[in-house]
Specification:
three-stranded mixed β-sheet, 16 strands, alpha/beta
């Protein structure tokens, strides 16, 4: 099985610095190359990095030699001129959106990585444990038992993210969202009750296989006790999962969640469908009144935020969704829930903290180097 690890990143500011030095200086891409990227197996891994090239400079399109010399996996980089992120409202911190970069990244993955079965999308400020993630993806593929090149598979952690609902007449977080389809109730409108969403839902046909509408996968793997000779291996876990098939009617009524953007997993079929149907672009263009007076383009949570747009697209496309993997941890304080089963930790904005946490979690997983 081939896995592509995909990132949006700013090019290194100092191309003469080694990754470890760059990490201490606050270059988060340097942190990734100083820690987990060199541990990716050559035979089954690619790294795709879409660089945020905000100015036309030839040096921005390539990574420093010091980054790639000691990495066995194939490294691919490409520039997106004009940057991967935008601000749609300069007055609020909620307004940063990287939908533009995510759209370009999905297009590139669709065009150039036809041999991959799964894509792991990783933010540069996410600490990732490659052996554990590799085992997780293989366990996911085994548990689902469906061809990742034919079926949409989407996995991540929806903890502490927003839900999108058809919420006529219901109350969410103590506030009434809307009284009837598409009509505002106070300052709030549900995205999935807007006319734009209904048109999009009618025009994007889910990818179907016989007897599969949408399946949500709950807990399906757990780490066995570590052997005396090596690290704990989630891949050796016994499969313990439950699949719930949802009818088309229930799909339209159920809440739609999404995996937070630090780390999530897409099958090849999900990448192809999202790119070919321009799904992220279409979802992120939906406008409705916001829950915040400072965020006029937002809904429950703006679909212009790339992780939300990807999750909404996965819902539209159907398939298998596993959004309960809490070991894609959000926030440092929450990692103890996983202990040695940690897959990824996001966000870590400080290079020194990143390197310290890397050493700690490597040792916790049973690795001595």
């Amino acid at each position: 099985m081939r896995i592509t690890f995909a990132m949006l990143a700013r090019p290194p500011a100092n191309i003469t610095q080694a990754p470890f030095t760059a990490c201490h200086a606050g270059e988060m891409l340097g942190c990734a190359f100083a820690t987990w990227v060199p541990l990716l197996p050559q035979a089954s891994s690619d790294v795709a990095i879409l660089l945020d090239c905000s100015k036309p400079s030839g040096a921005q399109g390539t990574l420093p030699v010091s980054y790639t010399t000691m990495v066995p996996a194939a490294i691919h980089s490409r520039c997106l001129w004009g940057g991967v992120c935008d601000r749609y409202n300069n007055d609020t911190r909620y307004s940063l959106t990287c939908a533009r970069g995510t759209i370009a990244l999905l297009d590139w993955l669709n065009e150039a990585f036809s041999g991959t079965e799964f894509v792991v999308k990783v933010d540069t400020d996410a600490l990732l444990l490659p052996a554990q993630v590799d085992s997780y993806v293989r366990s996911l593929a085994s548990a689902v038992a469906l061809d990742p090149k034919q079926v949409v598979i989407y996995a991540g952690n929806a903890l502490r993210t927003y839900e999108y609902r058809r919420c006529e007449g219901v109350r969410v977080r103590g506030r009434s969202y809307c009284s009837s389809a598409g009509k505002p109730c106070g300052k709030l409108v549900c995205l999935r009750s807007t006319v734009q969403w209904q048109h999009l839902e009618a025009s994007i046909n889910p990818l179907r296989v016989p007897d599969l509408h949408e399946m949500r996968v709950s807990r399906f793997w757990r780490a066995d006790s570590p052997s005396a000779s090596g690290p704990k291996s989630p891949h050796a876990a016994r499969a313990a999962f439950m699949l719930e098939s949802l009818s088309a009617a229930n799909r339209s009524k159920s809440a739609v969640g999404y995996g937070h953007g630090g780390t999530y997993v897409l099958s090849r079929a999900a990448v192809v469908a999202m790119a070919s149907k321009q799904c992220v672009r279409r979802v992120s263009s939906i406008q409705c009144y916001g829950w915040s007076s400072k965020e006029p383009g937002a809904c429950e949570h703006s679909p212009q935020h790339e992780d939300a747009a990807v999750g909404l697209c996965a819902h539209l496309l159907g398939g298998v969704h596993q959004l309960t993997e809490r070991c894609f941890v959000r926030y440092l304080k929450e990692w103890p829930i996983c202990k040695a089963r940690l897959l990824a930790l996001h966000p870590i904005k400080n290079g020194s903290v990143y390197l310290r946490e890397w050493q700690h979690h490597r040792r916790a997983a049973g690795f001595t180097k």
